[in-house]
Amino acid sequence: MDAKSPVHRQQKKPSYPISERLRTYLRRYRRERVLPVTYERLRSFSESVPLSDGAGAPTLWESVFYNRLEMESLHDDLKHVYALIRVDGDLSVMKHLYIDRIDYCAFGNSAPFRIRIVNAYNENPDYFYIKRGDASRVYGLELEHVLSPNRLNYITCGNTLVEEHIAGIPGNVFIDRWLENPELRPIRVAKELVKFNERSFVRLLGDMRSYNFVVVVTPDFEGAQIRIRAMDFDQQSYEGRMNFYRPQFFKDNQKLALFCTEHLRIETARQYQREEQVLIIQRAAITEERLGVLLEAMSSDELAPAAHIHELRTSLAEYYQRDDYLCCESMGELVRENLRSIRLNVDELLPGRPQQLDQESEK
């Protein structure tokens, strides 16, 4: 992996509305639901206080408070939202839960609210987020659900988006405190970065700098397994720079990229890259109908300026050595073309196997 040519911070991305075609897709797959709480309702808080972390350091979040007459009904409705994303709205198993805190973050495009919900019997907390609905973010979430090894629960309602919490060690914390941990095998960390890098690149998920992904460490009988998971999908298919979709090139990730080049031979990195390409193709085949409907909607939606699309298609055409990219006029078409490119790459290596779904491990 090449740790050179870091990608620098981009300008703020505009919000793209959820189109009727995308809304039809969301209804078909039960992502669009009637919600008792909208993003705009949460915006009507009356006061706020800065929120510190466990060590007392300031954070980008602030805890918000509402009119006393509104608070009780708001908390009940938020428990209903949580029931919708966890148990399809069954409130009978949610009676022992209570809303402990509502936090707000003005940083970033989504300006999210984070809801802390607690089990009254054992004080075990969980979180979920309510954000502005945005087509880029929804496409990012759905492509993650369909093409990655991770499954996501989220709901849309008009211009409101509800997302479950993605648990893990924040990437910047992992790099600072865990990267040199002797309990982790360096080769497994390096392997997962290669695979995460490839997943992000193929489905054009951008801005995967360290604070936009988490690292999940799972103890195993022979050392821990590692998985990197995206947790911010705002920059799905927007930028024109190709390296914006390759996490290895971000300055924030440089220490992680250099760590991988130190512990991974280029031949092995290519092996892991090809493994992930095969897995992406297998996932796409399993969800062929659903993915086809999604990409049809994505291909007809405006998700980026035309200049970004033209810049990116030229770079991808050169990278994959395929002029088919030069006919693409939308980001959705470029994602579809990326899937065709990796299928062609795999077909060249494994002739006669494109329709066969192997039982290959996700590890």
Q: In one word, what is the shape?
A: globular
Q: What is the domain total for the residues?
A: 2
Q: Report Rg.
A: 21 Å
* Poorly predicted runs of 5 or more residues: 352-363
Task: Report the sheet-strand fraction.
Answer: 15-25%
Main β-sheet description: 7 strands, antiparallel
The tally of beta strands, per DSSP, is 10
Q: Give the % helix.
A: 40-55%
Order of helices and strands: HHEEHEEEHEEEHHEEHHHHH
N/C terminus separation: 20 Å
Which class of secondary structure composition applies to the elements?
alpha+beta
Mean pLDDT: 91
The DSSP helix count reads 11
Strand order of the largest sheet: 1-2-3-4-5-7-6
What's the helix and strand layout?
Elements: H1 20-28, H2 39-42, E1 47-52, E2 58-65, H3 68-87, E3 97-104, E4 113-119, E5 125-132, H4 135-147, E6 154-157, E7 160-164, E8 169-170, H5 171-178, H6 186-202, E9 213-220, E10 223-230, H7 254-263, H8 266-286, H9 288-300, H10 306-320, H11 331-349
Antiparallel strand pairs: 1-2, 2-3, 3-4, 4-5, 5-7, 6-7, 8-9, 9-10
Helix pairs in contact: 4-9, 6-7, 6-8, 8-11, 9-11, 10-11
